[in-house]
TrEMBL record:
Residues 256-270 have a biased composition (Basic and acidic residues). GO terms for molecular function: DNA binding. One of its GO terms (biological process) is rDNA heterochromatin formation. Residues 106-120 have a biased composition (Basic residues). InterPro entries: BEN_domain, BEND3. Residues 307-409 form the BEN domain. This is BEN domain-containing protein. Residues 78-103 have a biased composition (Low complexity). GO terms for cellular component: heterochromatin.
């Protein structure tokens, strides 16, 4: 039992160095393997655990136990023992034989000085400015400067009410307390963001309305152009029917003509007086249906500055206008006059587009002739003067036409 108690290990050990210093250390400080026996000598590291194992010195294990017990015993032994004065006489050699030398090298313990960093002296606070504090300590104040909105983005300010609030007249007995004037509160960041979101939403609504108005105006212009073309249709001359050589029964229209040979009452008094009934005219005369013509009269002096090679005659323009009913079809009809190189048997037009580029990297049409083409189209169809209308109604039709190859005649 005694040997087992001697080899029983606790968390800490009380060791004694050769110079009489006692030290409480954990098990990790004892540089040996296996169990630690009380009364045996082992190399023990002193102080900081970061030191190398070579700096360990041999010490004797006095006792083992928990940290508080070993620390208490270390303190008691340090108080009981007192330093002895060294005698000037040399000690007498004892006849007892010296013990066996330890295989461990005993080195003098090195005491590392404590490194203390000097603290910087705290600087005194300097008063930079003094302002009035916030009246309401719970009011939110943004640390950033609130941006100044431009005039066209500022929210409309509420109009003051026509009737001013009624202020009660203080009684002469109660003292008059001056009411503090409210300071202008700085708008918060959340309020500014909410105002901007409302303004942007209103702008989107206005833009959508403006786009819808432009679309309605374009459709109205097209209807007006169609009505004008209907009014310019050819007028038919009414001719009298041929007189038959043989007598026949008078028709309905012939009976409506006044009979100038009928005798009046002055000539024949025996004729009874009857009221004259006006002839009944039909509501719709039988006429042949006519199709509206789209012949447009455009002054040719508008195209006097166009060179002779690309200037079209009035006959060519009228022929192209009569064979087309839309601005896009009219522009496609003019391509064979302005871009004759595209109308060949090689199908070169499939390699071109109005502006060029795209996924197939097509070649663009000549810019100069495109300007002349737009002048002709806008002169005959003023409804495509705007860029958006010209792109939607003319350029799209031209690109669709250029994508179709020429069908070979069988």
């Amino acid at each position: 039992m005694s040997s087992r108690a001697a080899t029983r290990e606790y968390s800490h050990f009380l060791v004694k160095y050769d110079d009489g210093i006692r030290y409480t250390c954990p098990r990790i400080k004892i540089m040996t393997e296996g169990r630690v026996r009380v009364g045996s000598r082992y190399p023990v590291m002193y102080g900081n655990s970061t030191s190398s194992p070579e700096s360990a010195e041999v010490a004797e294990v006095i006792d083992t136990g928990d940290y508080l017990q070993m620390k208490t015993r270390e303190t008691e032994n340090s108080e009981v023992t007192s330093p002895t004065s060294s005698s000037p006489q040399s000690p007498v050699a004892s006849p007892v034989a010296s013990p066996v030398a330890s295989p461990y090298v005993i080195r003098k313990r090195k005491k590392m000085p404590k490194t203390t960093t000097s603290k910087k002296p705290r600087q005194e606070a300097v008063l930079l400015s003094m302002e009035e504090g916030i009246h309401d300590p719970y009011a939110y104040r943004s640390p950033s400067i609130s941006p100044q909105l431009p005039l066209h983005l500022e929210a409309p300010s509420p109009t003051p009410s026509p009737t001013s609030p009624i202020v009660p007249t203080p009684t002469p007995t109660s003292p008059i307390v001056p009411t503090p004037t409210p300071t202008e509160a700085e708008p918060t960041a959340f309020t500014i963001q909410k105002t901007l979101a409302a303004i942007y939403k209103q702008l989107e609504i206005y833009n959508a309305r403006q786009t819808e108005m432009e679309r309605i105006i374009l459709s109205q212009n097209q209807k007006i152009d169609y009505l004008v073309a209907m009014q310019r249709q050819q007028s038919f001359r009414l001719t009298a029917p041929p007189t038959p050589t043989t007598p026949r029964t008078p028709t309905f229209h012939q009976r409506q003509l006044p009979d100038f040979d009928t005798p009046t009452r002055d000539e024949r008094p025996d004729t009874p007086v009857t009221p004259s009934i006006p002839p009944v005219m039909p509501l719709f005369l039988p006429t042949t249906p006519t199709a509206p013509t789209t012949v447009r009269s455009v002054p040719m002096h508008l195209f006097a500055d166009i060179p002779e090679g690309v200037r079209l005659s009035e006959n060519d323009l009228n022929q192209a206008a009569s064979s087309s009913t839309t601005p896009g079809a009219f522009a496609v009809s003019l391509l064979k006059y302005l871009f004759q190189e595209l109308f060949t048997a090689d199908n070169l037009r499939v390699y071109f587009s109005y502006r060029g580029g795209g996924k197939l990297n097509k070649r663009p049409l000549d810019d100069t002739r495109k300007q002349y083409l737009r002048r002709y189209v806008t002169a005959f169809y003023p409804s495509v003067t705007l860029d958006s209308a010209y792109t939607a109604m003319v350029i799209e039709k031209i690109n669709q036409f250029l994508r179709r190859p020429i069908q070979q005649k069988k």
